Amino acid sequence: MSFLRRHRISHRGRVSQRAFTLIELLVVIAVLALLLLMLIPTQAGSRTKSQGIRCLDNMRQIMNAMMLYTRDNHDFFPPNPDDGNTVTGHNWCPGVAGPGQNAEFNSDLIASRCLLMPYVNTNVSLLRCTADLRIGNYQGTDPTKFGTKVPAARSISMNFAVGTICPGFNSGTGHSGRPTLSCNGPWLNNAHSHLRNTPWRTYGRLSEVVIPGPANLWVMTEEAPASINDGGFSFGMNVPEWIDFPSTLHGMSCVVGFADGHADLHKWVDRRTVPPTPIARVSVSGSGDWMWMRDRTSARAQ
After folding, report:
1. CB 3.0-4.6 Å disulfide test: which of 168, 185, 289, 302 passes with 176?
2. Distance CA 85, CA 230 (A)
3. What is residue 7's predicted lDDT score, i.e. its pLDDT?
4. How far apart are CA 80 and CA 196, in angstroms?
């Protein structure tokens, strides 16, 4: 093959290999960006759904533990006083787990003193919502964890109309005696002065759950991270307002566990259910969310 022929073939090959123009590159980038924008909401929605499913399974395990506890304790619900105490045997879950509190990042306290832990193999992660992103300094007693960052210890709370208290707490003298008295449900009258069954029902035993029935009385709920404090969820039956706030982290939904042992992922529809910043009590007249919870928190005893 002559040099001239080889040169022509090489020349034709170079001419046929045309590069992208700037406009074509911009079009490709624009298409890729559009596809990415379409993909992000899908991935976020999938992640939210996955987190909700995991929390639903966690709550089912917690409610199964609750049912086993009542079976082993003569039908009594675990103690649910309004004080965040850490006295062994006198609180379903000890400590105050709210922002800035001494039990916010202390899962050791839950592992050692939460009365439901023996029924779930001390799996403390069951009490933490998968969408709760709080991270902070470890507050426990394990020296190997000092100075480390850990997730929040607890994201769920118990209905203050459900549970027991001991005679000592009932008389205002501290914690003493077996917790066999129905709790007072202090916030049921919106004033932190309610006493058991006057006028709203409180439930110390599973067998006392008659109105509403077990399938319609909520016992545990995920609580908004900014709202969570002691082990009880404060709810007023007299006036439509949020005192404590249920979680909205699962796409305006949260997981709720009921007295028959089942759990649901409930969807909220009123934006006033989202806690304000800073956290404060919020009047919610006409709120369907508040009415849904009212119908499942307690009922009139008188």
Report:
1. 168
2. 8
3. 47
4. 13
Residue 91 near residue 231 (C-beta atoms within 8 A): yes
- Strands 232-233 vs 164-165: parallel, antiparallel or unpaired: unpaired
The DSSP secondary structure of 189-237, one letter per residue, reads: GSSS--BTTBSB--BSBGGG--SS-GGG-EEEEEB-TTT--SSEE---S
Q: What is the pLDDT of residue 10?
A: 46
The bridge status of strand 253-258 relative to strand 218-222 is antiparallel
Q: What is the pTM of this model?
A: 0.85
Distance from C-alpha of 65 to C-alpha of 139, rounded to nearest angstrom: 26
What residues have CB less than 8 Å from 250, skipping those under 6 apart?
A: 48, 51, 52, 55, 131, 222, 265
Query: 215-254, pLDDT tens digit by residue?
Result: 999 999 999 999 999 999 999 999 999 999 999 999 999 9
Tokens of 236: 């007023």
Give dist(CA 83, CA 181) in Å, integer: 16
For residues 284 and 291, give the distance between their C-alpha atoms in angstroms, rounded to a whole number. 10
Residues 6 or more apart whose CB falls under 8 angstroms from that of 238 comprise: 188, 189, 190
Higher pLDDT, 143 or 33: 143
> What was the pLDDT predicted at 47?
64
The one-letter amino acid at 32: L
Rounded to whole angstroms, the Cα distance separating 117 from 131 reads: 22
Is residue 112 within 8 Å of residue 197, measured between CB atoms? no
Nearest 5°: CA angle at 183, between 253 and 56?
A: 25
Dump pLDDT digits (tens) for 63-85. Answer: 999 999 999 999 999 999 999 99
Beta strands in the chain (DSSP E): 135-137, 149-151, 156-159, 164-165, 181-182, 218-222, 232-233, 241-242, 253-258, 263-267, 282-283
